[in-house]
Design a protein that fits this description.
The complex is a heterodimer of chains A (about 525) and B (about 300).
Chain A: H1 2-33, H2 35-39, H3 45-53, H4 55-73, H5 77-81, H6 87-117, H7 125-150, H8 156-172, H9 181-185, H10 199-221, H11 226-231, H12 237-263, E1 273-277, E2 280-286, H13 293-317, E3 325-329, E4 338-340, E5 349-353, H14 362-377, H15 388-397, H16 401-407, H17 415-421, H18 428-432, H19 435-438, H20 442-460, H21 462-473, H22 481-489, H23 492-500, H24 504-516
Parallel strand pairs in A: 2-3, 3-5
Antiparallel strand pairs in A: 1-2, 4-5
Helix pairs in contact in A: 1-4, 1-6, 4-6, 4-7, 6-7, 7-10, 8-12, 13-14, 14-15, 15-20, 17-20, 20-21, 20-24, 21-23
Chain B: E1 11-22, E2 25-36, E3 40-44, H1 51-58, E4 66-71, E5 74-76, H2 81-84, E6 87-90, H3 102-110, H4 118-127, H5 141-153, E7 159-163, H6 171-188, E8 191-196, H7 199-205, E9 208-213, E10 216-222, H8 223-229, E11 230-236, E12 248-255, E13 258-264, H9 267-271, E14 280-283, H10 286-294
Helix pairs in contact in B: 3-4, 4-5, 5-6
């Protein structure tokens, strides 16, 4: 009976299983050939770790799909049910076959890695047992997870994707998911740890795997397998809508939780000069042991200037919060070098510069601060293609707003450059895909954007420009689906109309007229 | 076609009080049925009456909530694997593996039956004109039904259960298929239970019938018994007629200006029935008896 079932599975899925083995062979070749990894220590076991992250989840998904999900989707389990065959045995054979394939593949990988490492590493029984146990725990957990998911039929992909995205969100937010049982088995110590048995992680992986396997069997057996059969039915249109909404809600909740966790880990710069203006807080520190008097003076001046500039911007836009700003003085940087500290948006903005360099451009630093802080404030949404024209215009105009206002003709400085880059058929389409304009010339496209904002102020009043920019960049946007949804539901042309009463077509017409009025160079 | 009833043969299958709900809906609500050795039993009911649920419970595919199944001398709540090995089963839909050839399917199914006769399977395929080396996906509906029959017969089962085996077949294929069932049943005295909602099919084929409606058995016996028990009384409108207490009223409705009643009573009771002036008693065809039994009403537009 079992032999018949096994023969059937092998005939039905032989190609897939062969493909998995070919993949495994490729991975083994990688292990054998990867001299870099061997020299880096850890022998081929580092490559096995890579397999654990890539091959194992993929193989588990494929096995669950072909062995379980396909059977229920094609309703061929109804044929098996008519045969003198207990249902649990049918599922048991599939479960065992999939697990055996996976265990065989990983065992082969471990043997090859061990064979490779025999000359360079002390292959003690304890180390071998450790590596084998960790691999077994991880494979067991991943396989049972995919096994249980495969019984969820039409919900398996959406649930799997939600779990995966949620996992990434939590990992991104700083939750130490890698320390959770099964994941702790395949952390960076996998190829090196020779003494400590991760008993806790192994126990969690074994227990979770047992629970998942039991869940899979329960789904396949409960109510005479009608639950699994029902779940394998195709999704109706209404269900698709509901599931999409539910997934969005789950992602919003995940994002919210992750965002909250991120916010709880602020960046600290001990010894920094801190200046506050309204909602803006600027901290400037020197990455040197003993800053000179000139350096200290520069730090204080920059802190005050940046706080003043950004405070005014936050006030202008009506921001109720603003990302913290960190500026780090580094002597090793060239005068024109401005490097980004790569903080998460929720942590704020960090820029590094040589603040006392001879040709240091303070204006460039301030312009960069405006750009980066608005990106962080809107969780990057300010930089979306369709928002970019307004963003570019604001960033170009803001640092020189005083001079522009004093000159009385705000567009004059930018008009020649704008005329060079403005497409002949300049239309709302170009505003939606601003990248098509700035691909011609970034600087000129910024001039064109600044002219647009200038025209808005000239023709409809400076308050109209402020209301529009405030609606665009004033509210802080969370870095998750909520922020994205808010941005999608309120495109710039709608914000322009609701805040100023001006349609984008009107603005474009006035904008074109202003630029075309410039005599050709 | 009817079985000589002097000494009834032993029961191969006896179901008592079978019950199964789906949610709050009673799919099968206390079904009793008996299939005797060597007979062809027609299990008749409209769509959704509970035929498939009963058969799936008989096959152990679903569990019964209550009741007993005595199958081939063994009484259980749920049919065991050992019992299933002695049953040939043709389901309503043939969910075969489409990539298998008919011969490969035979080898696969044969592994589950100790009594599997490979030569018989090959012979059946040949007789039924099913190409052994053709993939299942390339077979027509009729061919698949024949393949299912060959798979069910090859283990030489003591009992053959067919769940609406001709559903989806054209009239010619349907008749041909039912002739095959009758032929093999008569030739090997193989006890056969088949479900259907097609009255002519049952009338032509079955020795005894069971009529199921809304999960309950309304009648079980031979067609002759059914005709003897259930008759139609036509009474002119306006003439009062109350059926006596020993008559069970199955149906009562005006039809073509006449009150038409379908009544069930013992054959002897019909001889003593006092009728009002102008009333007549008529015998019913199986179709009329079936419609009277399941209680459907004439749609008036």
């Amino acid at each position: 009976m079992i032999r018949g079932l096994l023969a059937k599975e092998l005939r039905q899925h032989g190609y897939t299983l062969a493909f998995l083995f070919v993949m495994m062979l490729g991975a083994l070749a990688l292990i054998a050939g990867n001299a870099t990894l061997r020299r880096a220590g850890g022998g081929g076991f580092s490559a096995v770790l890579i397999l654990h992250y890539t091959y194992v989840p993929l193989a588990c998904l494929v096995l669950g799909q072909v062995l379980i999900a396909t059977e229920f989707r094609q309703k061929t389990q109804l044929f098996l049910e008519g045969l003198p065959l207990p249902r649990w045995r049918m599922i048991g054979v599939k479960f065992t076959l999939g697990l055996a394939v996976l265990v065989a593949a990983i065992t082969a990988a471990l043997f090859v890695a061990g064979w490779q490492a025999r000359g360079t590493e002390a292959m003690t029984p304890r180390f071998a047992t450790l590596v084998a146990l960790k691999s077994a725990g991880w494979v067991w957990f991943m396989y049972t997870l995919c096994f249980a998911l495969s019984f969820l039929g039409r919900y398996r992909v959406i649930l799997g994707a939600t779990l995966f995205i949620g996992f990434l969100m939590f990992a991104e937010s700083g939750v130490r998911v890698a320390e959770f049982g099964p994941l702790a088995l395949v952390d960076q110590r996998f190829a090196y740890e020779r003494q400590i048995f991760p008993t806790g992680a192994l126990a969690i992986a074994a227990g979770a795997g047992l629970g998942l396997a039991a869940l899979g069997f329960a789904l396949g057996l409960v109510r005479d397998a009608s639950v699994a059969a029902m779940l394998a039915e195709k999704m109706s249109s209404r269900e698709k809508v509901v599931m999409t909404l539910l997934s969005l809600i789950v992602l919003v909740v995940f994002g919210h939780v992750a965002e909250r966790r991120k916010a709880t880990r602020p960046v600290r710069m001990p010894g920094a000069i801190e200046v506050e203006r309204g909602v803006v807080r600027v901290a400037v520190a020197a990455a040197v042991d003993a800053p000179s008097r000139a350096e200290s003076a520069a730090l204080e001046r920059i802190a005050a200037r940046a706080a003043e500039e950004l405070g005014a911007l936050a006030e202008y836009l009506g921001c109720t919060s603003f990302p913290p700003i960190f500026i780090v003085h580094r002597r090793d940087l060239a005068a024109e070098e401005l490097t980004n500290g790569n903080l998460k948006y929720s942590q704020g903005v960090m820029l590094r510069a040589n603040l006392v360099a001879k040709d240091f451009d303070e204006a460039a630093l301030l312009e960069r601060l405006v750009r980066e802080s608005l990106l962080a404030h809107t969780s990057g949404l300010a930089g979306r293609d369709r928002n970019t024209w307004a963003f570019d215009g604001l960033v170009a105009w803001w640092p020189v707003r005083a001079e522009a206002a004093a000159a009385g003709a705000p567009d004059a400085a930018w008009l020649p450059a704008a005329a060079l880059v403005m497409p002949r058929d300049f239309s709302p389409r170009h505003l939606r895909a601003w990248s098509s304009v700035w691909m011609v010339n970034v600087e000129q496209s910024r001039a064109l954007a600044a002219v647009g904002l200038g025209v808005l102020a000239q023709r409809h009043g400076v308050e109209a420009r402020q209301r529009f920019l405030s609606a665009m960049f004033g509210p802080a946007r969370p870095q998750d689906v909520r922020g994205w949804l808010a941005d999608v539901l309120q495109p710039p042309h709608r914000r322009l109309r609701t805040t100023t009463g001006v349609t984008v077509e009107t603005l474009i017409a006035e904008w074109r007229a202003a630029v075309l009025a410039v005599p050709p160079p | 076609m009817e079985f000589p009833s002097s000494l009834p043969p032993p029961a191969v299958l006896e179901v008592r009080g079978l019950r199964r709900h789906f949610g709050k809906v009673p799919a099968v609500d206390g079904v009793d049925l008996t299939v005797r050795e060597g007979e062809i039993y027609g299990f008749l009911g409209i769509n959704g009456a509970g035929k498939t649920t009963t058969i799936r419970a008989l096959m152990g595919i679903i569990a019964a909530e209550a009741g007993t199944i005595s199958l081939l001398g063994e009484t259980t709540r749920r049919t065991s694997v050992a019992q299933k090995r002695r049953i040939g089963y043709v389901s309503q839909e043939q969910n075969f593996y489409p990539w298998m050839t008919c011969a490969a399917l035979g080898r696969f199914v044969g592994a589950f039956y100790p009594t599997w006769d490979g030569a018989e399977f090959a012979r059946l395929l040949s007789v039924l004109e099913v190409p052994a080396e053709r993939r299942v996906s390339e077979l027509s509906g009729g061919m698949r039904a024949k393949l299912a029959l060959a798979l069910a017969l090859a283990p030489r089962p003591a009992l053959l259960i067919l769940d609406e085996p001709t559903a989806g077949l054209d009239p010619v294929a349907r008749r041909e298929f039912m002739q095959l069932i009758v032929a093999q049943a008569r030739q090997h005295r193989r006890t056969t239970l088949f479900s259907s909602h097609l009255i002519d099919e049952v009338e032509r084929t079955a020795d005894r019938v069971g009529i199921i409606h809304r999960g309950r058995m309304h009648f079980e016996g031979s067609l002759r018994e059914l005709r003897g028990l259930v008759r139609r009384v036509r009474v002119p409108l306006g003439v009062e007629f109350v059926p006596p207490p020993d008559f069970e009223l199955w149906r009562d409705e005006p039809q073509d200006g006449v009150r038409t009643l379908a009544l069930r009573a013992a054959p002897t009771a019909w001889d003593g029935l006092a009728l009002p002036p102008g009333a007549v008693v008529e015998e019913l065809s199986l179709e009329d008896a079936f419609i009277a039994c399941v209680g459907s009403t004439v749609v008036r537009l």
